[in-house]
Structures are given as structure tokens and as C-alpha cells.
């Protein structure tokens, strides 16, 4: 019996933390991408007006 519940809990916690960090990174990248696209569209519309 080499499975320690404390070790599995720690692994589960670290896995959850890493997944949360990856999730937040993806969301922030998507938000920044949308912001840059909006800024670019606003600049283009300013030039066309």
C-alpha cells in the first residue's frame, strides 16, 4: 500500500491549481486578443471617416 492519501490530495491540489492557472491564462489571452482587435477596428474606422 504505497498510496498515501496526503500525497494524492497534494497531487490533486497541484493539478487543480495548474488547471486553474491555464484556464485563467487562456481567458486573459482571449480577452487581450479581442481588445486588440477592437482597437485595430477603431483605428481603421477612424482612418476611413
Verbal overview:
This protein is an all-alpha fold and 49 residues long. The protein is rod-shaped, with a radius of gyration of 21 Å. It has one helix spanning 5-48. The chain crosses the membrane at residues 15-36. Keywords: Membrane, Transmembrane, Transmembrane helix.
Summarize the structure.
This protein has 49 residues and is mainly alpha-helical. It has one helix at 5-48. It has 1 helix and no strands.
The total of beta strands comes to 0
- What is the ordering of alpha helices and beta strands? H
List unreliable stretches of 5+ residues: none
Rounded average pLDDT: 86
Q: Round the Cα radius of gyration to an integer and report it.
A: 21 Å
Largest beta sheet, briefly? none
| Shape annotation | rod-shaped
Structural class assignment: mainly alpha
Instruction: Specify the number of helices.
Output: 1
Helix content: over 70%
What's the multimeric state?
single chain
Describe this protein with a few key phrases.
49 residues, mainly alpha, 0% strand, membrane, transmembrane helix
Topology of this structure?
Blueprint: H1 5-48
